[in-house]
């Protein structure tokens, strides 16, 4: 009996260990070495070039950590694609084109595409007081809806804070859509002016795939705006399953995806775990910003020992914020894929 219990315990530890390691394995791997033997941040040269350029830019600590998480996701996807290519998959170049597009979106998102971006994006909640109230969301429809909701008297201060997060999330999505549209337009211009090995049907297929992605994002934006309009008029319902905008969006997509009751229940449970991850990430972002402010303050005072202690604390927080950001984005990617794959399977039946 004792050996049986021991084996069960050992099995449980292994299973839990495997689950815990699912999103942290890549993060905790030793840093790769470059050609000169020096350790580098990423295993792909162009991603290291972007990261090195970012060190010289005036990005806020939160944006800096976000860029690292985005580059880590890009690295994972590119390494997976290289394996696919070796196995003879992605013959029509669809995945490769998507990866190139994702990379261009990262460059544009962080102002590294050599093009002046006139669309401001500072979704840092600590800077809300700097923004004029009437132009908080840089979109007339959103501002009008927000002002109406804020002055309606329907919402408690906590509900208004949650609603503001929903509006901010929608603003970020509009920004991402504009960047993607801009990237697609410029890619098409390049396609027109270059004699490409992708001719005829294959080239058409890649262009069609880009437009499909844009159409889907536009549909998501319209559905998101409708949801905000409904929330602003009717308020939050008592039985709201989730609090975080990204999680709510995934849950809404799952309910539209024609899934079975069992699949929805299973997904709901996973989304609750994901929401905890999103909240943890937001908490660390906030702590990172505060730690940075404290470091600037200590630097101004000039006490070297105090500066060293605060710098170490800040560096640890920055590392942790990047790691949690990567795990969260990876999990979100997996959930998106799961919802669209299961929905597709049901539609094909």
UniProtKB/TrEMBL annotation:
Keyword Coiled coil: yes
Biological process (GO), any one: negative regulation of very-low-density lipoprotein particle clearance
InterPro entries: A2-macroglobuin_RAP, Alpha_2_MRAP_C, MG_RAP_rcpt_1, RAP_D2, RAP_D3, RAP_sf
Coiled-coil features, chain-numbered ranges: 211-277
Annotated Alpha-2-macroglobulin RAP C-terminal domain residues: 136-349
GO CC terms in record: cis-Golgi network; endoplasmic reticulum-Golgi intermediate compartment; endosome; plasma membrane; rough endoplasmic reticulum lumen
GO molecular function ontology, one term from the record: very-low-density lipoprotein particle receptor binding
Protein name: Low density lipoprotein receptor-related protein associated protein 1
